[in-house]
């Protein structure tokens, strides 16, 4: 037994620490492309244990990397500098669902969809719905500020976190926010921790705001002859002061990937498609759907499907879900970037992407959350080809540059982690980065908690 | 269809190298966490398919030892798998984790012995000490194990006697007085022009639940089929497969090919989802004559639906007193995409009010030999299943796998619920049987 393992075992017990080659190997991944082996894996079961592990790590100057489901796409949960992977999956209890104050208190390892199922049984609603919701954890969602299709109307994880229990890098347990919607005492530390990618503290208890569950929803699928028609329709819908629950788009290349893999007939001449879902009280929905159809009429619409039943709606969403796997199959390697631009800039961004695809000779497939300007850009390639890595890198950089130029961002949902650290300065000014680093240094002077993320190594303090 | 089976060779088992491409296909998205029963019990990366596939990848890359040299932590991960295939259903890239796990178990067992796999117990097959152990254990299964069940039967792997304390917490049927083969002839002539079918009974139906087998044969006879029940058939090999005992699987496959090939039937019917997976799906991967046999295998729910049984049942007057019944998807039906036929049958039964339960497709936790060697995890997985039954208020949980029936009974009983688990065929009474007759 290594001395690290022995010290950790003294904190959490022998059977919740492992340093076997096997465990180090299988905890060396998340859903992204990186791979780094930790020295040990620890399964925490309480905030006190997390705090004790942090204090021990501080004493030994060993990094600690919090980990939820490991579904992150940017390497956030990887032990870039070795050390301890601290798994929070066993802290998976829903501690409270308060139907009077519309809130839930959960441990970080609760799976997003599990919380949603439990609150929906009580007529309540937890809206953030990352595509990974069936397996991602609330802790990971908070750390990455996860979003999803519903965020056009309902916002992202940040908008639902009322309060946190956090273990600091020094191993203290602190509390932020609380159980009320209003709370202006002191700094808004809750917001600081949401989206910190596990670099400033480890969330060990999360208080979430809930909504009443919408009574019903109605799904529409619209086909357009051009991407411009689809983009104009998005603007027109919003300008008509209709905020759909979701507003998803797929470009021509995306539709080509899923043609034949869905029960829905996709017309050959279709250049783009939108999925529009409105929700609310039942009587009101038919009118709302009719308003949507009226607004988009005449904007290159060449066909539409309005789901009348749950099954028809499910068929439309099945088609949307078929996209990711279908796209991945098109090429041996597939890079998925999640840029975001102001809603009105979507047509411009798409045109920019089309040009970049032609110039680089690399196919690009685009789909995503039109309602909030979040575009999933899939670059299809084969890294076995000589020089491909460099070509892809160059293209990604151009994609990011275009997004920033349109006053958007290089990541809408997946975070910076390891994968986007080197592009940080494309979007943030040196002073802004310096401010963030000052914060990090003040809270974690020895750089124990999740080092090597967000910021590039090798600059001033690391 | 090619019916000619000349050489009666069982074919070969896939080895880890055969899965190199499949292993590459895993993009480590983690989606399998949403489907894997082993993950829900342990929540460690090694529990879930992604971790097991990573172990396999590391073995191929030379980062972990092979065979007898495989690190014990990796063996433990490979042993913590119910081989239910649920992960593959939810995997965007169709990674066949259960098959990969099977290949690793065979590799380890071949080099380090069956016990090294941590799921199977080679010593059970015909050992003298075992026989002595039987008397000491004095369990319900003892006489059964001693006298009747062939040494190669999967029941011996599922209920190994040196693990009887673990088995003791479970609900097991008392072994039947007379096995299925002692109750029925080998051939029952049907009506001309009707299908010729063979019934593959499997160990559980043969030895523990012969009444289900009798009901199956009765249903087929009423439908006018010519029914064969060849005595030469044996265990399908699933428990041996789960234990990593490749040679035993080959032996069993040979025996089954010998028993069924000469009959030249149109279909081989199963009423046990696991057996159907064994002789249907797994034999298919072995190639050779086993694969030819595999092509004829049909689950009874599919066969009955195709024979128009749903319509005939639906035409019966609804019973006045009906029971609320929900359906549990056995993993080995779900993975073959057999979801609708059993539901259609249930909905058509005149004495049944069919209700859908939440988590109907969640694994019951039995997983062949898994429940014996990982009893705690197995019972935990079972507990999750029961929540759905309780919520939907069903009086009966119907399913189509004797193993699931036993595990569900155990879970329901432990939870103190009045609901009971039954095989779907047990819901066929005289009125239902009468409706099947061809005029
Ligand atoms: C198929 C697929 C689809 C996806 N779709 C979406 C999507 O639609 N929208 C979206 O936003 N994301 C999406 N993601 C990305 C990913 O699922 C999210 O980032 C998710 O929030 C990560 O949660 P996790 O539990 O897997 O966290 P992990 O991957 O384990 O960790 C992510 C980061 O959070 C930190 N962390 C984890 N738990 C804690 C904690 N308790 N306290 C502090 N830090 C912690 C880790 O250190 C790491 O930096 C998708 C991923 C996949 C594979
Ligand atoms: S779902 Fe499939 S691809 Fe994703 S991690 Fe699991 S096995 Fe790999
Ligand atoms: S076969 Fe079943 S138990 Fe094994 S990894 Fe897949 S889902 Fe989990």
Short summary:
The complex is a heterodimer of chains A (about 450) and B (about 450). By secondary structure, chain A is of the alpha+beta class.
Defining key terms:
heterodimer, A: 462 residues, alpha+beta, Uridine Diphospho-n-acetylenolpyruvylglucosamine Reductase, domain 2, Uridine Diphospho-n-acetylenolpyruvylglucosamine Reductase, domain 3, Alpha-Beta Plaits, 4 domains, 7-stranded antiparallel beta sheet, 5-stranded antiparallel beta sheet, globular, B: 439 residues, alpha/beta, Fumarate Reductase Iron-sulfur Protein, Chain B, domain 2, Rossmann fold, 5-stranded mixed beta sheet, 4-stranded parallel beta sheet, binds flavin-adenine dinucleotide, binds iron/sulfur cluster
Mind sketching the topology for me?
The complex is a heterodimer of chains A (462) and B (439).
Chain A: H1 3-12, E1 17-18, H2 21-26, E2 40-43, H3 47-60, E3 64-67, E4 84-87, E5 94-98, E6 103-106, H4 112-121, E7 124-125, H5 138-144, H6 151-154, E8 161-167, E9 173-177, H7 189-193, E10 202-209, E11 211-212, E12 216-224, H8 227-239, E13 246-251, H9 252-258, E14 272-280, H10 282-296, E15 301-306, H11 310-321, H12 323-328, E16 333-340, H13 346-360, E17 364-369, E18 374-381, H14 388-405, H15 424-427, H16 430-443
Parallel strand pairs in A: 2-4, 3-4
Antiparallel strand pairs in A: 1-2, 5-6, 6-10, 7-11, 8-9, 8-10, 12-14, 12-15, 13-14, 13-17, 16-18, 17-18
Chain B: H1 20-25, H2 37-42, H3 49-60, H4 72-79, H5 86-90, H6 97-112, H7 128-137, H8 142-148, H9 154-158, H10 164-168, H11 180-183, E1 187-188, E2 196-200, H12 202-208, H13 210-222, E3 226-228, H14 238-242, H15 246-260, E4 267-270, H16 273-286, H17 288-294, E5 297-299, H18 300-306, H19 309-314, E6 323-327, H20 331-334, H21 340-348, E7 352-355, H22 370-373, H23 375-392, E8 396-399, H24 402-414, E9 420-423, H25 430-436
Parallel strand pairs in B: 2-3, 2-4, 4-5, 6-7, 6-8, 8-9
Antiparallel strand pairs in B: 1-3
Helix pairs in contact in B: 3-6, 7-8, 12-13, 16-17, 18-21, 23-24
Bound molecules: flavin-adenine dinucleotide (FAD) and iron/sulfur cluster (2 copies).
